[in-house]
Structure formats: structure tokens, C-alpha cells
Amino acid sequence: MSVAILGAGAFGTALAVALSANGPVTLWARDTGWGRANPRLPGVTLPDAIRLTDDLPDAARADTLLLALPAQALGGFLADHAARLDARHLVSTAKGIDLSKLTGPSTLLAEACPRATVAVLTGPSFAADIARGLPTALTLACADPEAGRALQHDLSTPVLRLYRTTDVTGAELGGALKNVIAIAAGVAIGAGLGDSARAAIVTRGFAEMTRLAARLGARPETLAGLSGLGDLTLTCTSVQSRNFRYGQALGARQPFDAATTVEGAATARAVAVLSRRMGCDMPIAAMVARLTDNSMTVDDAAQQLMTRPLKEE
User: Fold this and answer.
1) Binding residues for NADPH, per the UniProt record (predicted)?
2) Which residues fall within 8 angstroms of residue 115, CB to CB, at 6 or more apart?
């Protein structure tokens, strides 16, 4: 099976490095001028098994394509290039909800490329850890059990362990929604509210994630796995998480690098719309949406969360 990765950001490059342990991998980038050392992944040199190219039609001939593109960029990419993607398997690594269509990446892929088998690769992982060969476990979600087993086998490596599920909706939502909660956890730390406040946000945020996912057809146990609770734990406790760092900056009232992609900010706005449409109470996600569009202060957010009506857990 030939494998190509579309998108040479830090995560796409790290996946290419990891998968090159199994054999040749093609890595497509819009700009290949950086050669064998991607500035987005300092200290990592591409192994010889990775073929770097800026020729999209060439890369898209692979049997399996991993699309390592930001969630909000995927729709536009598919609108421009879906006709060129003839792979049997399309695997999304994006963690977000498309703002325009209010759907996850797998739906965008299935609509744009109906002949392909669509899967999602998600879970607790940082690009730097994967590129360094540190042990990582992820979720491979595919509605087709046979295709899922094949992808699980082909995309696992000695240090990259994949667990399989057919619950694409649950796996995808876990990866998207945890980014929203990670922003809230970062706000708590940045504002000096303490670790106890962060723990409360993580716990109640997980309840929100599970409620919305279940309303949208996911299995609750999927959210308790790597793609939900596992990824939530990682991103809410590490400064390697861009969403957590962004929340810290919000909480501390400090500027944040505008060039850094923060998937949770757009996802929070999408979730605010979805939760109202589904009649699903998500106060933490709603707070994050208002913080990210500057319609609420951190002090007001904390007060509103703490003065909500008392209830059973």
C-alpha cells in the first residue's frame, strides 16, 4: 500500500516521519523550499524514506491519503482539488467542526469524494513526540470494519499504536470538542484561578462533550477513549497544546501569535450554534465562544459559571 500525506505542517511532517518506519512515504507541501528540515518541527530531519513534493496530482496517486490540513481549511482545499484525489482511502487528521457547514472533516470528505473510504485518525498526540519516536496511541475510526482493520495494520508502527472503532462521529467529535475545553482550561490557569478550577472545567467540559456527541449519534464510550478523554487530558494539561496556550493568553489578557492555528476558537463558535440547534446545554463551550469573539470578559465568564443554578452532577 502506498501512503501520501497532504499537508506538511508540524503534525503532517511528524506523521510522515513515523510512517516512514514502515516504508516509503510521500509528503506533499505547497512550498518545499525548506528541504529536509521543516522549520515547523525544529530539530527533525526527514528520513530518506520520505519523498517531499509540491506536485499534488503526483502525491494524490497513493492508495491511502492522510489529509493533515486544518479543519477550517479542509473545505476550501476539497472544493479546489477533490477531483484529483483518487485514493481508495482518505484519512482525516483534522480536529474541528467546519464553521460553514457545521460538520466534521469526515462528512466533508465523504461528500467531496464519494467513491473513497473515509476514516479519521485522532487522539492524544503532539507532533514533537511523534517525530521523536516517543510511544503514542491513537484512534483510527472507520465505518467500514474491513477497511478499518486494513488501515489499522498499515498505519501502525512500533511506536505508533492504533486502536480501531467504527464510531467515526464519536472519535471525530472527541478530537474537535476537547480543543474548546482546552481553551477554557488555559483561561483558568492564565487568569490565576488555580488547578482546582481547571480540574472542574475538564470534568464538566467532558460532560458537555459527551452530551453533544450523544445527541449527534456518537457512542458515549467512544468519548471515554483515546479520542475523547485521552486527548482532553493531554491538551488541558500541557503547554505544548496551542489551544491551552491560547486560553492562557486570554486568561492573562496577553496577546497571542495570530499566525498560530487555534482550532478550538472556530470550533467553539460552531459548537455554540450546534448546541442551540440540538437543545444541548454547553455553558463552558458557550463561554469560550464569547471569550474568543471578545463579547465577554474573563471575570464575567467565571462569575456566570459559578452562579449557575445548583444541580445534581
Assistant:
1) 11, 30, 95, 127, 242, 262-263
2) none
178 is in an annotated binding site: yes
311 annotated as ligand-binding: no
Q: How many other β-carbons are positioned within 10 Å of the β-carbon of residue 154? A: 17
Strands 89-92 and 117-122, bridge-based pairing: parallel
Task: Sort 27 into a burial class: Cβ within 10 Å, 0-12 / 13-18 / 19+.
Answer: buried
What secondary structure letter does DSSP report for 144? S
10-residue block means of pLDDT along the chain (313 residues)?
96 98 97 94 96 96 97 97 93 97 97 97 97 97 98 97 98 98 97 96 98 97 98 97 97 88 95 95 96 93 89 85
Residues marked as catalytic: 178
- To the question of whether residue 242 is assigned a binding role by annotation, the answer is yes
Neighbours of 255 (CB within 10 A): 7
Helices (H), 119-167: 127-131, 145-155
- Whole-prediction pTM value? 0.96
Contact 94, 119 (CB under 8 A): no
Number of H helices, E strands in the chain: 14, 8
